[in-house]
Design brief:
alpha/beta; TIM Barrel; eight-stranded parallel barrel
């Protein structure tokens, strides 16, 4: 298993020295956040430090499930541009959110749109030798809207039907209420990345895990997982030095 760090974790204004620290600590890869103000510079810094590179595609104003045609075209254009840019840096994977239906009544129509658009973007990713990974998301517990891939079945069905790979966010899964070990075994060789953090099973806090994750690592061993474990940690809770000095982080880096 490879140990990576999400660059959401280091905030918006890091310099080359931060990437050198990440490399020296033992991380082998980083996942760029396309929405960061300096995402292009972060790509260059990562390449300069010989770190493997992944990408979290933008999502805040680019709803994959949107019924608005102009937003749809803009979303496809921006994501295609990022996939092509990632390929120039020999990027390995790109994580995507499934978007959201404006209301729960629109779920089925939204899912049709998501499938069509994921298929289009997956074709772009394949042409650029990048794996597109669908991430699980936290459900709307009010049931006002519908977050796509916020149930295990919906997420799994999309991955299987579109012949994609999955990015498992452990914090999101904790709020969803599903078993981490069972989910890992369920996806098997379709699991291609893990966003690693913990929370109170209510909110997406992105804390550093501090408990025994034996069941998770046993499940990963059972499926022969060799992909990235990407620490995705709250930059408003931790500094980069806090992360690199943390005993749990150091122990995982030694594995």
């Amino acid at each position: 298993m490879e140990k990576w760090l999400s660059l959401w974790s280091i905030g918006q204004y890091a310099e080359l020295a931060a990437f050198e620290k990440i490399k020296a600590a033992g991380f082998v890869g980083v996942e760029i956040w396309a929405e960061h103000l300096r995402a292009d510079e972060y790509l260059a810094f990562a390449k300069q430090c010989d770190l493997k590179i992944g990408l979290h595609l933008p999502f805040h104003d680019l709803n994959l499930a949107t019924p608005d045609e102009k937003v749809k075209e803009r979303m496809l254009e921006v994501n295609q541009n990022w996939l092509e840019k990632l390929a120039k840096y020999d990027g390995k994977h790109a994580v995507i959110h499934g978007g959201y239906a404006w209301s729960s009544e629109e779920r089925e129509d939204a899912l049709k749109k998501v499938k069509e658009r994921l298929k289009t973007l997956n074709e772009v990713a394949c042409l650029n030798h990048v794996e597109l990974l669908l991430e699980n998301l936290i459900p709307d517990k009010l049931n006002y809207g519908h977050i796509v891939a916020s149930t295990l079945k919906e997420w799994s069905d999309l991955v299987q039907e579109l012949d994609m790979k999955a990015c498992l966010d452990t914090g999101h899964l904790a709020v969803m209420g599903d078993s981490l070990a069972e989910t890992i075994r369920h996806f098997g060789n379709r699991l291609a990345s893990i966003h690693y953090s913990t929370n109170d099973c209510v909110s997406d806090l992105h804390f550093i895990p501090d408990n025994d994750e034996h069941a998770m690592f046993q499940a990963l061993s059972d499926i022969g997982y060799q992909g990235p474990i990407v620490y995705e940690l709250n930059p408003y809770q931790y500094s980069l030095d806090d992360i690199l000095r943390n005993e749990h982080v150091q122990a995982l880096l030694r594995l």
